[in-house]
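LOG
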Amino acid sequence: MASVYEDSTNVFIPYYRQASLRVQIDSWRKTGDIRNALKNNTPYADITAALDYYFENCNNGRPFIIASHSQGSGICTLVLENYFKEHADYYERMVAAYVLGFSVTKDELEANPHLKFATGESDTGVIVSWNIEGPRNVEENAPNAVVMPNAISINPLNWRLDDTYAPAGENLGSLVLNEKTGETEIRDIGADAQVVPERGVVVTNADHEPMTGMPDVFGTQSFHNGDYTFYYNNIKDNVAKRIAAYQNK
């Protein structure tokens, strides 16, 4: 996942002590939010300590991108809401935050007016977020631990917030595993995209097996593991465009 940023950025990856999946699921079932297992415990503390070190020793006043997935994106929403509220001078230099695989909600955006969600392919200082599902999850209104009420997603192919359909022909290439060679490669898997605004997710008909083993947690047709890889080259292209827009503003 981090490799999608390598062409355009220097990549810094913090080590942190993650919460186990069981702890997150327990939190979700009890409170409706996995972040209650993260925000007052080790994961969030480790990440904010890593950010302190990065900004004090490595950043040197440069613009930056924040990027995350899944549990990391749950933590990232807390970082955006709290850490960057306390460090507004850092936040002014944020090109974008790619918060994939966990919900950013309309309620949280309203409660934190310093945060802005992306509205197109090249706006800056914004949050870019989506959760990828198959049609079955939407039809069944399946429970999904990473999809929150009032979630908002942007389409990774046409960069729209409405339900305008983007065909697979707009996909610049997905990153998939070649099972014969054991290496990843760029391929066309038919990963189209359409936002479902009322659920706050992106639906795809990609020719790919959904996640299996935890239908009661992610639903029967979740593509949580494809949030980056299905739209790999489009994300790579988008990172470059947002950086260029930031440099030219």
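LOG (cont.) second protein
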Amino acid sequence: MKKAFVFWVEEYFYNPSPLQKLLSICLLPLSWLYCLIVYSLYKSKTPMDFGIDIISVGNLSVGGSGKTPLVSALAAQYENAAIILRGYGRASQGMHVVKDKTQILCDVSMSGDEAMIYARKVPNAIVIVSEDRVTGIQKAKEMGAKIIFLDDAYSKHNIKKLDLLIDVKTPNTACLPSGPFRERVWAEKECVILKEDLDFKRVVTLKDKCDKMSLVTAIARPGRLDKYLPEVVNKNYFEDHHTFVKEELQEILERDFADSLLVTYKDFVKIEAFELPLSLLDLEMQVEKKVFELIDNYRNRPI
């Protein structure tokens, strides 16, 4: 039931049927009220300077946008960097150090899938999960961080930071619940909009290819993968951040007569311990020099 509802919502936001479009129009008054409330919350906040350079990378719409590989590509270029995120889908609560400068300190159930990606992909960075970003920032400073990357923190208006937003194309530009947007780019708030193929480019590598691969993925809007996919025998979609069990994956291998499961890195970090045959669709970002110049200019700003 949850899986069906999640996919219905994704379709409603990004590829609506005529009936869903009608529902979206009917919900517009609630969207206007929602935007007013969110704007009021924004205006009530005063950004606090934590005495450290903070860069937020995210998007304003519900669902995936590629922020995890983008944050990875950015943070990997800086010494003494820390990455802080909420850690959605993890079994733990509160603040946890997933990785210090030298080693991973917990498993993926405690960290969540995205935090484990950072821990594996950005070996030079501290990785912290915390619902309270302020607590995470204070911990990162204690651990010697000199620059902090916040995963998806545009809405944290109480933190002084540089906001980088990934432009997400969708025909429905309304706010929740009529459309997918959680917030607007407020006119008074400075931010930088990053566009795919202008500011960054996705590069996909297929590793451990097999003749018969069955796609298994638990990412938001999994149809985004289609243009990168090799030939597969089947596509098996799960809701974003789904926690896999070995038996369900073994069943897919047997049902699809597959030689391996084709997964993204987000799925890989959750299922590699099962020791099943896996092929990896590995996504990385090539970031234009001008984006790093934006960050460096922010860091060198007059105090």
